Amino acid sequence: MLDASEDDINSPLLRQLLDMMGKSVYCCGGPSMGLVAKLSNNYCSGLIAIATAEAMNIGIKSGIDPRVLAKIFCTSTAQSTICDKWNPVPGICPKAPSSNDYRGGFKVQLVKKDFGSALDAVDEVGTKLLLGEA
User: Fold this and answer.
1) Are 77 and 48 in contact (CB under 8 A)?
2) Domain range enclosing 90
3) 50-103 confidence digits (pLDDT tens)
4) Which site among 16, 52, 123, 128 is 20 to 30 Å from 43 CA-CA?
5) pTM, to two decimals
């Protein structure tokens, strides 16, 4: 997520260098827009993780097999990368942190930091985050 526009003279060189490190490189439009994109993405991802955990908990507490519920989510409107690859319920996704004693996951402290930064950003642009504030 670059702080540059597509027509920036440095964009081709930056893209060439960063292509060696990652799969996707995006020009986000100019100064600080890469950070805005990162905060927006992490905010959305965090909310999806919370919603997935809560929805799985509803099903599990009601008695449904979590593997069945996860399959339903993966083939229905609840489908997401969080559900498909990083499911918070142990045993659903073998490579997910939840299935590996929560090693290698995105720490709650980092999510809290990103949510706080997102809240700061919305104050600057004059909008409101209903879910993030809660």
Assistant:
1) no
2) 41-133
3) 999 999 999 999 999 999 999 999 999 999 999 999 999 999 999 998 999 888
4) 16
5) 0.83
